[in-house]
Amino acid sequence: MNDITEGLRAAFWLLVSFDAELWEISLRSLKVSLSAVVIACAIAVPLGTWLAVQRFAFRRTVIAVMNALMGLPPVVVGLMVYILLSRSGPFGVLGLLFTPTAMVIAQVVIITPLIASITHQAMRELWAEYHDLLISLNTSKWQRVRTLMWDGRRALLTAALAGFGRAIGEVGAIMVVGGNIDHATRVLTTAIALETGKGDFALALGLGFVLIGLAVCVSLVTHALSQTERRGRW
Amino acid sequence: MVRVLPVELRGAVVRRRGRAILGPVDLTLAGEGLTCVLGPNGAGKTTLLRVMHGIERLSGGTVGYGLPEREALRRQGFVFQAPIVLRRTVAENLAYPLRLAGAGRADAARACADWGGRIGLGAVLDQPAQRLSGGEKQMLALGRALISGPDLLFLDEPCASLDGRATAAIEGLLRAARESRTRIIMATHDLAQARRLADEVIFLRNGQVERHCAAEAFFAAPQSAAEEAFLKGDILQ
């Protein structure tokens, strides 16, 4: 209990004193995770929707694999991305290892199946509702996908926020590919891991509360901007 | 301009799990007017409409329109028994087929305002369509099917479970559409409605077309025991 109180106090002081390092790692956390979410959504949302409307051989297998990939162990993803980006790896020449870009790549790999699966589930239900109408209106595949994505945008927002939640709270993969380098790749989760390792539980908890606050704020701002709860709208 | 879009079925068969639920059907629908598809439950009325509209996969036979299929389907509309409304406003629902066809926002908005009034939903154009009552949803579905001026309109029991007022409103729209030379093919259980509206009748039983004739002839002179029993309201096995 004492640790939690100390943590809350530490979080409060870090915020009110505009601690420069806290702002730096918070902004880096946001930048990395939001970039990963944007890229993952660009891949996963059309993919999940397309899987809902398209019939092809091995479709069920693809969906099963996609669902299974939701549980990808982040450390293993980090290790694979590390090998690919290391000097001896196929993309070593790009010099991306231990940069925020490598962290974004790792997070994209982790959250894309999650967003695609949630998208697919939501779009499958909407497609069942719209199927006869969209077929009878002689719509093209692309028009169907666009209609479902637009009318199912609230579910897609949920999928994106779930991806963001997983990304911003992720530590294993970004620790491996980012290296937790001060002023370069340190983010809130890796800082928490570092402070915990050093035994500074109060600071670690403080950073944890800031992380939770950040995730909640992003969710609230997203809902407010997209007006999902506006009266009479979906 | 006469906009007849003929529908021609040749040996059309639909099987599900090895059982033929429709056909083989040979049928040609040409000319104008309103055709009612009648028959007991399970006769294949809905399946026949879906086959004619090209949204039901045939197990055998063909369906043709005298036009390339894509062009023919573009000139058709379909209203389902359970109205399907998009999770959008009434106006956006009405505008949807126009926008699909490439109409601009201003043109679509003008058409929506016009059709909103015609279907009695002018005051709720900016309301979410899913908040409408069942009858209003069916009016919206009908308006959405008619807004792009189809040559051929299919309706699958559009007035099922609607009250007299909503039924009268829908029948008014159908009469107006028929006068503007939209060919209408409608499945219905309501014999009184068929008498009021039909120019010709297709009587289906056990997936087979038992009779295809002028409505007057059908109601005046049934040609089989099944037709007679159906017109009397007896239960057909």
TrEMBL record, chain A:
PROSITE patterns: ABC_TM1
Keywords: Membrane, Transmembrane, Transmembrane helix, Transport
Domain spans labelled ABC transmembrane type-1: 26-222
One Pfam family, short name: BPD_transp_1
Membrane topology of this protein: Multi-pass membrane protein
Cellular component, GO annotation: plasma membrane
TM segment ranges: 32-53, 65-85, 91-116, 156-181, 201-225
Broad class of where this protein is predominantly found: membrane
Localization of this protein: Cell membrane
Protein name, entry field: ABC transporter permease
Organism: Harenicola maris
Automatic annotation (TrEMBL), chain B:
UniProt xrefs under InterPro entries: AAA+_ATPase (IPR003593), ABC_transporter-like_ATP-bd (IPR003439), ABC_transporter-like_CS (IPR017871), Molybdenum_import_ModC (IPR050334), P-loop_NTPase (IPR027417)
Span of domain ABC transporter: 2-231
Superkingdom of this protein's organism: Bacteria
Name of this chain's protein: ATP-binding cassette domain-containing protein
Keywords, comma-separated and alphabetical: ATP-binding, Nucleotide-binding
Pfam families, sorted: ABC_tran (PF00005)
GO MF entry, a single one: ATP hydrolysis activity
